[in-house]
Amino acid sequence: MDAFEIAYVELRRRARGALYQEFLRRPTMSMGLYVLAAGGVDPQQPHGEDEAYLVLRGRGRIRVGDEERAVEPGSVVFVPARVEHRFHDITEELSIAVFFAPAEGSAPKA
Protein backbone atom coordinates (compact mmCIF):
# COMPACT_ATOMS: atom_id res chain seq x y z
CA MET A 1 0.00 0.00 0.00
CA ASP A 2 1.10 3.55 -0.73
CA ALA A 3 -0.25 6.03 1.81
CA PHE A 4 0.64 9.69 2.30
CA GLU A 5 0.11 12.42 4.87
CA ILE A 6 -0.41 15.84 3.30
CA ALA A 7 1.34 17.51 6.26
CA TYR A 8 4.52 15.57 5.48
CA VAL A 9 4.23 16.31 1.75
CA GLU A 10 3.85 20.01 2.66
CA LEU A 11 7.04 19.88 4.77
CA ARG A 12 8.97 18.37 1.84
CA ARG A 13 7.56 21.01 -0.54
CA ARG A 14 8.56 23.86 1.78
CA ALA A 15 12.04 22.43 2.33
CA ARG A 16 12.56 22.48 -1.45
CA GLY A 17 11.12 26.00 -1.77
CA ALA A 18 8.85 24.75 -4.55
CA LEU A 19 5.22 25.43 -5.44
CA TYR A 20 4.61 21.77 -6.36
CA GLN A 21 5.58 18.50 -4.67
CA GLU A 22 4.79 15.25 -6.43
CA PHE A 23 4.18 12.39 -4.01
CA LEU A 24 2.90 9.54 -6.18
CA ARG A 25 3.98 8.46 -9.66
CA ARG A 26 2.72 5.51 -11.65
CA PRO A 27 2.56 5.24 -15.46
CA THR A 28 -1.22 5.73 -15.43
CA MET A 29 -1.36 8.64 -12.96
CA SER A 30 0.56 10.96 -10.68
CA MET A 31 -0.42 13.07 -7.69
CA GLY A 32 1.05 16.13 -6.07
CA LEU A 33 0.48 19.08 -3.77
CA TYR A 34 0.39 22.57 -5.30
CA VAL A 35 0.46 25.65 -3.05
CA LEU A 36 -0.03 29.25 -4.16
CA ALA A 37 0.32 32.20 -1.78
CA ALA A 38 -2.40 34.79 -1.30
CA GLY A 39 -1.85 37.39 -4.00
CA GLY A 40 0.49 34.98 -5.79
CA VAL A 41 0.85 34.27 -9.49
CA ASP A 42 0.22 30.82 -10.97
CA PRO A 43 3.05 30.22 -13.48
CA GLN A 44 1.84 26.92 -14.95
CA GLN A 45 1.43 26.16 -18.64
CA PRO A 46 -1.00 23.66 -20.23
CA HIS A 47 -0.13 20.02 -19.62
CA GLY A 48 -0.26 17.08 -22.02
CA GLU A 49 -2.29 15.08 -19.50
CA ASP A 50 -5.80 15.36 -18.10
CA GLU A 51 -5.71 16.97 -14.67
CA ALA A 52 -8.04 17.30 -11.69
CA TYR A 53 -7.69 19.70 -8.77
CA LEU A 54 -9.13 19.26 -5.28
CA VAL A 55 -8.86 22.44 -3.21
CA LEU A 56 -7.85 21.51 0.34
CA ARG A 57 -7.71 25.04 1.75
CA GLY A 58 -7.77 28.64 0.59
CA ARG A 59 -9.79 30.76 -1.79
CA GLY A 60 -9.30 32.18 -5.24
CA ARG A 61 -10.45 31.79 -8.81
CA ILE A 62 -9.53 29.53 -11.71
CA ARG A 63 -9.81 30.09 -15.42
CA VAL A 64 -10.02 27.01 -17.67
CA GLY A 65 -10.18 27.85 -21.36
CA ASP A 66 -12.80 30.60 -21.57
CA GLU A 67 -14.60 29.60 -18.35
CA GLU A 68 -13.96 30.97 -14.88
CA ARG A 69 -15.18 30.18 -11.37
CA ALA A 70 -14.40 30.70 -7.69
CA VAL A 71 -12.65 27.90 -5.77
CA GLU A 72 -12.66 27.15 -2.04
CA PRO A 73 -12.09 24.09 0.17
CA GLY A 74 -13.90 21.15 -1.38
CA SER A 75 -13.92 22.54 -4.93
CA VAL A 76 -13.00 20.00 -7.62
CA VAL A 77 -12.04 21.20 -11.10
CA PHE A 78 -11.24 19.01 -14.12
CA VAL A 79 -8.90 20.36 -16.82
CA PRO A 80 -8.61 18.45 -20.10
CA ALA A 81 -5.14 17.93 -21.56
CA ARG A 82 -3.61 20.91 -23.40
CA VAL A 83 -6.23 23.43 -22.23
CA GLU A 84 -4.95 26.79 -20.97
CA HIS A 85 -5.72 27.20 -17.26
CA ARG A 86 -4.55 29.26 -14.30
CA PHE A 87 -5.47 30.15 -10.72
CA HIS A 88 -5.75 33.88 -10.01
CA ASP A 89 -7.21 36.42 -7.57
CA ILE A 90 -5.93 34.25 -4.71
CA THR A 91 -7.31 35.80 -1.51
CA GLU A 92 -6.22 32.99 0.88
CA GLU A 93 -3.25 30.66 0.35
CA LEU A 94 -4.42 27.81 -1.89
CA SER A 95 -3.38 24.26 -1.06
CA ILE A 96 -4.45 21.96 -3.88
CA ALA A 97 -4.23 18.21 -4.42
CA VAL A 98 -3.40 17.64 -8.10
CA PHE A 99 -4.14 14.43 -10.02
CA PHE A 100 -2.69 13.78 -13.50
CA ALA A 101 -3.70 10.93 -15.82
CA PRO A 102 -1.48 9.60 -17.25
CA ALA A 103 1.44 10.68 -15.05
CA GLU A 104 2.55 14.29 -15.51
CA GLY A 105 5.01 14.66 -18.35
CA SER A 106 4.35 11.20 -19.79
CA ALA A 107 1.80 12.05 -22.52
CA PRO A 108 3.12 12.27 -26.09
CA LYS A 109 3.79 15.81 -27.30
CA ALA A 110 1.03 17.17 -29.54
String of helices and strands: HEEEEEE
Task: Report the principal-axis shape.
Answer: globular
- The chain-level structural class is mainly beta
Number of domains: 1
The CATH architecture term is Sandwich
Low-confidence stretches: none
The averaged pLDDT comes out at 96
Radius of gyration: 13 Å
> Termini separation (Å)?
34 Å
Largest sheet: 6 strands, antiparallel
Number of helices: 1
Descriptive overview:
It is built from one helix and six strands. It has one helix at 6-16, and strands at residues 20-26, 29-36, 50-64, 67-71, 76-79, 85-101. Strands 1, 2, 3, 4, 5 and 6 form a six-stranded antiparallel β-sheet that branches. A hairpin with a 2-residue loop joins β3 and β4 (67-71). The longest helix is centred in the N-terminal third of the chain and has 11 residues, at 6-16. The model has no long low-confidence stretch (mean pLDDT 96).
In summary, what is this structure?
With 110 residues, this protein is mostly beta strands. Helix content is 10%, strand content 51%.
